[in-house]
Write a structure and sequence with these properties.
Elements (H helix, E strand, L loop, with lengths): L3 H14 L26 E5 L13 E11 L5 E11 L4 E2 L2 E8 L24 H6 L3 E5 L22 H18 L3 E10 L1 H15 L5 E7 L12 H16 L18 H6 L14 H10 L10 E6 L7 H14 L5 E6 L6 H5 L1 H12 L9 E5 H4 L29
Parallel strand pairs: 5-6, 5-7, 7-8, 8-9, 9-10, 10-11
Antiparallel strand pairs: 1-2, 2-3, 3-6, 4-5
Length: 418
Amino acid sequence: MSSVNEQVLQAIQYEVSSWANGRATDHPFYQVPDGASKATPGSVLKVEMDTETSAYLLPPATALTRFMYQSENLTNKPVPASAFILWPYSPKSQADGFAVIAWAHGELESTKNKPPSNHKTLSQHFLAPFQLAAQGYVVVGPDYAGLGVHKHESGLDIVHEHMASPSHANDVIYAVQAAQKAFPMLSQDFVVLGHGRGGGAAWATAQRQVDKPIPGYLGGVAISPVTTILDQPEPLLSILGESLIPGLSATFPDFKPGDVFLEGRRLGFAHVDHLLGGAGIMKPNWSENEHVQRYHAMIANGGKKIAGPLLVVQGVTDVRFSSNATTKAVNTTAEAFPKSQLEYVLLPNVSHVPAIQASQRLWMEWIADRFARREVPHNVQRTKILQLLIPRARPSASYHRELNWHLAPATKHYHAPS
């Protein structure tokens, strides 16, 4: 049996093999240009018009662009961020240009060297971005601030505000605005689709739209979303809590990490401890800390007013984000704002990532309806069970449960005949 160090090394080596262009922190594209600090949010800082795709694993007949733009962090301070555009061969068109989907990526990882724009498969491949492009949508995918672009123009580190949904929503909105400025052929119309923490970004975008409405926003889809982190069960609660510390510390300079960490434990090891059966690093009752409570109130989804249509999709057997927490967030929103254009779909016997595939027909049709300007009722449709909408062809036990494959490059000419 391999040692813990060997397992960690193997995991790191596997992650490195997924990078398209080596370390993002060393790549010139992710270096912030002079004058970036003076740019307003939504401004374009640089564009790599035709990204070399030979190192990526993209579908045939797609093109890739990477760009850098100005976003804002949780406290509305300017921060540069990067994003990609995945171009379909034959784009869908609106009256004013090509239809845009803002894709807010998921996954728990928050390393500076793993932005989707430097991932060989753009991180979530056929789970969503490739499928969207195949349907003719131009896909704008933000990396989120602190991933890829890791330093300000001044040289100061950029804090990645992991799981801070309003911060990620800023990245989504300003990425779309920057893409529209860089490429006038893009329509002003766009829909936000997100999964996991990206689902949280989609939900937070709907909340953001109340006070900071953006022209062209047609609605959002939040799949397996992060909602209220403090409502998650253990051990997930402590794992997510550990990931909040950098953003929490940046927001509240008087916060002391030692108030929530066990003595002698180090930041960054909660994920490893959990995966290897360890006990974690957080103190008992850490979530009751005053700063944690204030920060959570800032970043939580649910119980807040939303603008525009929002479709929430949740797998009942999700072990990353509890379906109970999502249901609670939907219910608190419904009770406070019963006229919300909110639809909630629960997927029986479906977990975190498979929720994307299990509901794909549903959200593809929902997105098409938004671009077609079809009306959504102004009242919360509390809970729909997918099996009532789409009778399953086979019993639940017959279906493949989890993703157990990854894309790999063709290394010989006969692997990919032309």
